[in-house]
Amino acid sequence: MTLIVEAKQRLGAFFLDAAFTSEGGVTALFGRSGSGKTSLIRIIAGLARPDEGRVVLDGESLTETKAGLFVPKHRRHFGYVFQEARLFPHLSVRANLSYGRWFAPGVARGESFDHVVDLLGIETLLDRSPAKLSGGEKQRVAIGRALLCSPRLLLMDEPLAALDEARKAEILPYLERLRDQTEIPIVYVSHSIAEVARLANKVVVMRDGGVEAVGPAVDILSRASAAFDRKEAGALLQGIVESFDARHHLSTVALKSGRLHIPGAALTPGKPVRIRIPSRDVMLATARPEGLSALNIVEGKIEQLSPDADGTVEIRLDCGGDAILSRITALSCERLDLRPGNTVFAVIKTVALEA
Ligand SMILES: Nc1ncnc2c1ncn2[C@@H]1O[C@H](COP(=O)(O)OP(=O)(O)OP(=O)(O)O)[C@@H](O)[C@H]1O
């Protein structure tokens, strides 16, 4: 699967000028509110025509302004999931799901009804009406309906934004299954680092209508960027579960830089996992600390210091090939006399497991 997107469009005072390609999996369009994510996904969907540009899926041009070509939305055979589930209130869940089938092209390979119901865990909801579903359940049904249209591409615009944290946590594993168990490529719009860190293979960072950065999730999310919410910024690392200590409820995950101990869920040894370390939860020490309750202390070399106007500094460490970010005050940075090339010890307070 190859998707090529190039678009220039003037929208009032806003100018969208963005391009990216996707090779399948989940491609996240990530950026702050107003950066142009929805405008770009509307162009991919065929809901809007760019002033200049093209959308090409597997060699087939769907939008090609130079040639005056524009395939309308309903003939693109894409699936859509929006922030609000938009189910038909007068139809049961089953009828809502079956509705999608009407729009599936006759010869489409398609997911079977039973498989989609199973994938999304909605079997017990089939005879209910949408009014009797929670927000998370409605959204799972909306995803099911989109899947049953046998889409060539699934476009998801902030599908979790309207849900509270508990509902988000409930639905994320289903999105992971969707990514891992179907071959449908997904373009996923979000401004949440946690969601993108968990789901995306590739990340396109949008800023002021343009593409600020594009690349594998693990690389992009570990970079300092103005597009990231300060509270959420941090490093994303890839590791393998080594062991689980049932007595202490602690998993050990092997990274390039060593091992991290992660409290909570029992993880299966051998399983690849993604780990996110928020930069504000990483303290630095110039000597290996002793007598500290923190379980995770990693040695690294300072690669880069990026001071901010608010009196803090983001420090990027190279820890044996893994990048770890730390945000500390400019005063601490001065007192410790931190400079590029120095060896330091990162004291990690929290580690979030993303998959
Ligand atoms: N039809 C339009 N006319 C004028 N301005 C527009 C139009 N559509 C979008 N804009 C402007 O373009 C900018 C980008 O909007 P867009 O909805 O693409 O951003 P976004 O990144 O999806 O934001 P959010 O995360 O808040 O949904 C905004 O400043 C918006 O006001």
Give the tags.
21% helix; transport; binds adenosine-5'-triphosphate; 355 residues; six-stranded mixed β-sheet; five-stranded antiparallel β-sheet; single chain; alpha+beta; globular
Low-confidence stretches: none
- Strand residue content: 35-45%
| Unique bound compounds | adenosine-5'-triphosphate
Largest sheet, spatial ordering of strands: 7-8-9-3-10-11
Number of strands: 21
| Oligomer state of the chains in this structure | single chain
**Structural category:** alpha+beta
Protein name: Molybdate transport system ATP-binding protein
GO molecular function: ATP binding
InterPro entries: AAA+_ATPase, ABC_transporter-like_ATP-bd, ABC_transporter-like_CS, Mo/tungstate-bd_C_term_dom, ModC_ABC_ATP-bd, Molybdenum_import_ModC, Mop_domain, P-loop_NTPase
Keywords: ATP-binding, Cell inner membrane, Cell membrane, Membrane, Molybdenum, Nucleotide-binding, Translocase, Transport
